[in-house]
Write a structure and sequence with these properties.
mainly alpha; rod-shaped; about 90% helix
Length: about 100
């Protein structure tokens, strides 16, 4: 916790007729609790870096999968076209035969 906040809290408790030793105990307890459960600016920056890295990794994986699916669809469409053209040519051959 910031020193200014500690001083302000301590002063507020003392001005509310809380004994100095108890006011200091409250400030210390609050500082301990906040230091364990609150994220610091550097904690948040580290988390942001880690999340950005994960997002970039996921983005690359998705791009790779999309490219792979595009290739698979192209191959399948090509195969269907070959089969379709073969059927049409065969049908034309049998229709034109006397």
């Amino acid at each position: 916790m910031h020193l200014q906040l500690n001083i302000a809290l301590y002063a507020a408790l003392v001005s509310a007729n809380i004994p100095e030793d108890k006011a200091q105990a409250v400030v210390d307890a609050l500082e301990n609790a906040m230091s364990d459960s609150l994220a610091t600016k550097s904690d948040l920056q580290l988390l942001e870096q880690r999340l950005n890295h994960r997002v970039d990794s996921i983005e690359q994986k998705l791009e790779h999968k999309i490219d792979k699916l595009g290739l698979q669809l192209t191959v399948r469409l090509g195969g269907l076209m070959v089969v379709g053209i073969g059927i049409v040519l065969t049908a034309m051959r049998y229709m034109l035969m006397p």
